[in-house]
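Reader question, answered in our methods column.
A reader sent in the components of a multi-part assembly and asked whether the whole thing could be modeled at once rather than chain by chain. We filled in our standard form and ran it. Here is what they sent:
COMPLEX SIZE: two components
ENTRIES:
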Amino acid sequence: MAAFGSLALLIALALAAYNLLAGAIALRLLATGTPARISPERLADTARRAGIAGFVAITAAAFALVWSVFTNDFSITYIMEHSNRALPGPYKFAALWSGQEGSLLLWAWLLATYGFVLRLTHKSDVTLHAYAGTILAAIQVFFLTVLNFAAPPFSLLNGPAPDDGNGLNPLLQYPEMVIHPPMLYLGYVGFAVPFAFALGALMMRYPGEKWIKITRNWTMVTWLFLTGGIFLGMHWAYAVLGWGGYWGWDPVENASFMPWLTGTAFLHSVMMQEKKGMMKSWNVWLIFSTFLLTMLGTLLTRAGLVSSVHAFAESPIGTWFAVFMGLTLAVCIFTYVLQRDHLKSDHHLESLVSRESSFLFNNLVLLVACFVILWGTLFPVISEYVVGNKVTVGAPFYNRVAVPIGLFLLFLTGVGPLLPWRATSLKSIRRNFVLPVAVLWVAVLACLAAGIRPWKDGTFDGGSFYALVAFAISAGVLTAILSEFFRGARVISKQTGHNLFAATYLLTRRNTRRYGGYIIHLGVVVIVIGLAGAAFNRSEERELALHDKMSVGPYTLQCVGFTQDANLNYNSEYALLDVYKDGKKQFQMTPEKRVYLASQQPQTMVAIHSVPNWDLYVVYEGSNPDTGQPIVKAFLNPLVSWIWAGVAVIVFGTLVALFPSLSPATASLRVPTARPVPTEPVLRSGD
Amino acid sequence: MSETQGLVAGLLLALAVFVYTFWPENVFASQRAKTRLDYLFERKDQLYENLRDLNFEYRAGKYPEEDFQVQRAQLENETAQLLAEIDHLQQA
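And here is the structure of the entire assembly that came back:
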């Protein structure tokens, strides 16, 4: 299979190179109208077909690697290093992305898959799709060059193949790890599609904003994958790393978060371009930056520039990525400078208090957050370059900056939809903001009454303060969103005679994009409530001999035994802990410690009991080498399950937004008689 | 799969993708170049949608009467100018 896989990758590279060259020549011929021996349409079609054939070739290569994992072909270096005979089936799939070469192959395959769909749907706008397909081919040429010459997944071992492999990294042997990396990659790679459309539309001076409509679903699906990938990674970190948290501002976590921030900003600001013809240059640069940040993420993960628990591979391919990023940036700048007159806005910001300005502030805040995280992530590299020491930036830096920024963003989430377009009068503010602001202050009073007080015994408690602010703003935003649904449903109810529930359904179906977006905002509120719970985390650590007890929050844990287990893949030790609440036994927890046989690496398996109020999170840390007593650490983490529930709401909201809206009801519009046409066109763009 | 079998399978794959890519086709999807008129029609649809949104939000109670009138007049004026340009281009 190694020979077949290697050959398939070479074929894929040849096809991608042909797609790029033939596509570029055909587009040039079409743009200039230069006569040629072969018709440009025919040449463009062969380029498109080469892209589709490239998908088949890369699929064959990916299949060859998966086949080699499942048939334990340890003559292939990659399989020997990332798999072993006893590895369970689903984790054999995970071996595909557990190392450098495999994950690059997965990346190339996902890009080919996206490209395949794009090339099949080319009839909606043939020329624009041809531009986008050619740009995707250029990206694919880069990945396939790296795969063929710098990180070949099918390279063979020198000498005879061993009987068994080194096994999969134990950190990856967890169910979410079978889903999390592909999900994240789907998000990373997917942003290449709106990037290709944006760059293509700029290159061809695409008239109007229809390209945004064409790419809208691509962008939303990609954003959904990236969101899902990030949260699956959080859940994995929470359940596997055993430190009681889910987000540690690790460079690789940051690498996935940065394109998410700019991608989120893009999703919001393109609405301004679609509706008002504004922020065109801004949007182009947002999607350029998002794509470049996905590349930076890969560079950080792959080049070993920064240390991280997630950086599973380190190699010199970082240089390849740096060069590719430099070239991409140069192409973006060149195209922008050449075509910037095409990006003039049709309208300008009329007031600082308007829906337009709320979108702009939302974008600015997201970009500030992205810049802060980028600065913190690259600071070790910069400091090493400038002063010779690698100075690492820790979680307190990020928390100090990111928490207020996040709360301001949440505030804007509530304010934006309530503001009218163009300008807002005082009367309008009074009409729309009284209820949410009142609920916000009621929430403040309720939190204070519940004991959430920023000042305790004369000292300021930052955690409680931010939690109080987060709960209060969440209450205000929740009210604002629900009032949007209620007011809209009331209108529909009057029109149709349906009850409010049916009217809410109809309202959502009539404008899935807007109301799906509101549902996503609801999910964000739920997540923020969950994140704010971290201010009240508690933990206890003790050596527990048989029948010893320890308490955390309302729970008492009693050790009732220890046991061991073994299978072909790992040996494990369990602590058996009975959990009591109010003197009554509630359930038993079995935190576990494993030692994987192939790699001889230990791994913690945390026991988690989750209820809406909190998570009881128990880690078996092994035995104290001095006393021989087992050590158990228990955490009580409030509201964590709200985070995962919020993600489910976001997924639902995105699916709603992806659903096509019902056709608008026909309504007569009073439009004044057409005036004589002005000398200059009314709208500057579209030439 | 032996190395030889792998190479044969790879060559067959190469042949298949070559035939698919360069198979003589005489019918290609093509489109005429997008004109300013096409763009104006797209913009017209968007302006109508903006007007529908404005009316709906007004009926939902988000706009005071005077704000609504100002906004509607601005949007209608923009729509009228756009329709005038469409008329002009269609007649030309």
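What stands out: Chain A touches chain B through 69 residues (CB under 8 Å). The first strand of chain A starts at residue 455 and ends at 456.
Send us your own complexes using the same form.
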